[in-house]
Amino acid sequence: MYRQFIEDNYDKMSEILNCLKIGVYITDGEGNTLLLNDESCKTGGLTREETVGKNMRQLETQGFIEESVSLEVMKSGKEEAMIQNLGDGDKVYVTGVPLFEKDDIDIIINTERNITETLTLKKLLEKNSKVTAKIREEIEYLRKQSSTALGNMVAEDEETKRLAEKAARVAKLDTTVLLTGESGTGKEVFANFIYSNSGRVGRPFIKVNCAAIPENLMESELFGYVGGAFSGADKNGKMGLFEIANHGTLFLDEVGEIPIHLQSKLLRAIQEKEIMRVGGTKTIPVNIRFIAATNRDLKESVARGDFREDLYYRLNVMPIELLPLKGRKKDIKALAAHFVSKYNKSYKMDKKISNEAMSVLQEFDWPGNIRELENVIERIMISFDDNIITKAQVERAMGVMTESVGMDLSNLEGKTMTELMDEYEKYILESMLAKYKRASEVGRALGMNKSTLSRRMKKYGLER
User: Coiled-coil segments, which residues (predicted)?
Assistant: First the structure.
């Protein structure tokens, strides 16, 4: 009855539904897509060509959607609602209502509302209410720190101590710091250390992973926007992360991932101490201390034209290059003991590590650096019941880890660190794509949103 009416009056129904400012997506009782309006195309990011005539199970399997409210309605036979996460970071509240022909579901009408701005505002209000508590926590943190210059940073290797002492000196100044080094070498730890020893402690400390923000949203996330700047924008506008970090510190992790067309705006913020919101005409003064980090060779990026030379020199005022964990045997020992203590507290254990086990850890190359070492320690602690971590346990855990990193590392000569990291990233993506059927499952396993995963797959020619 309802389905036949839609099919007989498709054009008129489309015209009527396109006047609505909420998304409407209609399927039949078996989950086949019948009709969606323009707002649904905007909200869900799917075109009519991709959806009309397709079954919701098919769209789920192909990774176009994570889950379908229509399928839930088909199971329960009643109204259902859910929040869907889109690839660009937005969240949509979807309600599905069944209409029956006798005892069978004839059609399911889904309505979609983008609730991202509402959730963002809620988070900002919650954050503002916690400012006083945050300041107290920061003061207490500083009070508990050791009186030595290194505070509670784990640094036993002489070169690491030298870098930590350099960071402690630089922390007192408002100069821009560029932290470089392989992934997992502790760049965020150093950023936290610099902030905690700076004159801006207790003020905002905003951390931004530039690689995790979809490129089409990066400008509005960083610089904010004025009301009506683009379709779907909040009519009152929105503060960007630069404004939120005003009078505090902004940590730009993976700064090399910022698109070239936005680098001039970052340069202006550092150099002129002012920004402009998307769609705005007025400059906004900002007073920010910048800390940037990257695992890429920015000089090579400059040579390739991927990174502005003037921005590179603005960021590279005080460079601190963190060393790979390989060869820092004293640090490996101290870090391993630190992680054992950390997970003893987390899991209410009382484990110790034997000298033989420590020797095995110190001899390993650690391509994943500190992050990989922590992963191995946690894995051992939750995998074995013994209170002493033994050499055999370490070797077993390391064997699992070595098998998981199955790249051919025999031919490294003539390749830059950036090229090697790209090869490693491609290998991981290929392995995960072989393991999982859907790209959405790969994204969840790697902690990547759909947009970031799509960019990386396109970069390495792995599109499905």
Answer: none
Q: For tokens 């379709």, what's the residue?
A: 231
For the CA atoms of 9, 10, 16, 19, the dihedral, rounded to the nearest 10 degrees, stands at -170
- Cα–Cα distance for residue pair 96/107, rounded to 1 Å: 10
Evaluate whether residue 136 is within a structural domain: no
Closest alpha carbon to 31 in 65, 59, 10, 8: 59
3-state helix, strand and coil shares in percent for the chain, rounded to the nearest 5? 50, 15, 35
Classify residue 342 as exposed, middle or buried by CB count within 10 Å of its CB (0-12, 13-18, 19+).
middle
CB 119 within 8 A of CB 91: yes
pLDDT in tens, 140-149: 544 444 333 3
Q: Rounded to a whole number, what is the largest CA-CA distance in the chain?
A: 79
For 64-110, what is each residue's pLDDT tens digit? 777 889 999 999 999 999 887 765 667 888 999 999 988 899 999 99
In whole angstroms, give the CA distance from residue 369 to residue 401: 13
Domain boundary among 114, 133, 165: 114
Contact 116, 89 (CB under 8 A): yes
- Give the per-residue pLDDT at 352: 95
Do residues 398 and 426 share a domain? Answer: no
The rounded distance, in Å, linking the Cα atoms of 166 and 128 is: 34
Per residue, what are the HEC states of 275-303?
Answer: EECECCCCEEECCCEEEEEECCCHHHHHH
253 and 296 Cβ atoms separated by less than 8 Å: no
Number of domains in the chain: 4
- For helices 439-446 and 417-435, angle between their N-to-C axes, nearest 10 degrees: 120
CA–CA gap between residue 204 and residue 178 (Å, rounded):
19
The Cα–Cα gap between 301 and 309 comes to 9
Map tokens 């894995």 to a residue.
Answer: 379
* Same domain? 81 vs 14: yes
Q: Is the dihedral of CA 118, 121, 127, 131 positive or negative?
A: negative
User: Residue 19's pLDDT band (boundaries 50, 70, 90)?
Assistant: very high
pTM over 0.85: no
pLDDT of residue 127: 67
